[in-house]
């Protein structure tokens, strides 16, 4: 397993534009998760004050904002986000080295401990899509190329599929955070995720953070769902 930065690797995605519901879920799962993730839908619909309210619950917050713009603009946005109290945020590696360094400098200028994570190739893109946007295929080589750029530019890690951990860990070493969505407890509904791993498989493969959305937030009892996953991981530790 990679160097653990958070004692509990579970980050629950609060993918809803309904703030009272997000707060209710967040409070019920907080004792069982390592952090909470808010994304573009949440932030765009509810604004910065809603992010502050999630931060105030007390768990580390991952702002899944995927910034991609010129360095000066990304620096300003990164500074603003770090001021909201996010512990982790992300940027598109394809924005290039200057943009990545600008995000790192601005974010850490506000909070030296904030983690900046790179998005390599969106998992919704296939090799044929890379042709259309002028990126070199195959996607797995592009993922590695962009992850290497992320490391060289001072980022703390990348988002990846749990199935990509092997080659990324080999190329980037243990001191680089691998953040994996596409996690499904055994027997859970896959919904639109295709290549999934269970929480335990992903941690065993070397994931540092497991981003888990619907299996927790859409469960009848989100607190119980989060606890079950946390207990499974604890039992195997
Ligand atoms: O509900 P589910 O567990 O599939 O949610 C996964 C979360 O991770 C969502 O918030 C989704 O936006 C995010 N994500 C993803 N795949 C990526 C990057 C982020 O599923 N490649």
Under CATH, the topology can be stated as TIM Barrel
Q: What is the residue-mean pLDDT, rounded to a whole number?
A: 95
Q: What is the succession of H and E elements?
A: EHEHEHEHEHHEHEHEHH
CATH architecture: Alpha-Beta Barrel
Structural class estimated from helices and strands: alpha/beta
Q: Globular, elongated, flat, extended or rod-shaped: what is the shape? A: globular
Q: Provide the spatial order of strands within the biggest beta sheet.
A: 1-2-3-4-5-6-7-8
What features would you describe in this structure?
- It is a single chain.
- With about 240 residues, the protein is of the alpha/beta class.
- It has a single domain (about 10-235), classed as TIM Barrel (Alpha-Beta Barrel).
- Helix content is about 45%, strand content about 15%.
- The chain is built from ten helices and eight strands.
- Strands 1-2-3-4-5-6-7-8 form an eight-stranded parallel β-barrel, surrounded by seven helices.
- α1 links the parallel β1 (about 10-15) and β2.
- The radius of gyration is 17 Å and the shape is globular.
- The N and C termini lie close together (about 10 Å).
- The mean pLDDT is about 95.
- Cytidine-5'-monophosphate binds next to β8 and α9.
């Amino acid at each position: 397993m990679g160097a653990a930065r958070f004692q509990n690797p579970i980050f629950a995605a609060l993918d809803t534009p309904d703030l009272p519901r997000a707060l209710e879920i967040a409070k019920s799962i907080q004792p069982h998760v390592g952090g909470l993730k808010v994304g573009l839908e949440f932030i765009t619909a509810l604004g910065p004050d809603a992010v502050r309210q999630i931060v105030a619950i007390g768990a580390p917050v991952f702002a899944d904002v995927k910034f991609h713009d010129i360095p000066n603009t990304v620096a300003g946005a990164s500074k603003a986000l770090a001021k909201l109290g996010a512990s982790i945020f992300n940027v598109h590696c394809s924005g290039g080295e200057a943009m990545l360094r600008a995000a790192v400098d601005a974010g850490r200028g506000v909070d030296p401990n904030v983690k900046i994570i790179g998005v390599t190739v969106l998992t919704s893109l296939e090799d044929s899509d890379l042709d259309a946007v002028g990126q070199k295929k195959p996607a797995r080589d592009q993922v590695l190329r962009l992850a290497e750029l992320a490391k060289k530019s001072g980022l703390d890690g990348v988002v990846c599929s749990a199935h990509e951990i092997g080659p990324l860990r080999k190329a980037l070493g243990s001191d680089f955070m691998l953040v994996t969505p596409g996690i499904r407890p055994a027997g859970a509904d896959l919904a639109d995720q295709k290549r999934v791993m269970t929480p335990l498989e992903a941690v065993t493969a070397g994931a540092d953070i497991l981003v888990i959305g619907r299996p927790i937030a859409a469960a009848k009892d989100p607190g119980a769902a989060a606890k079950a996953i946390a207990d499974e991981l604890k039992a195997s530790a």
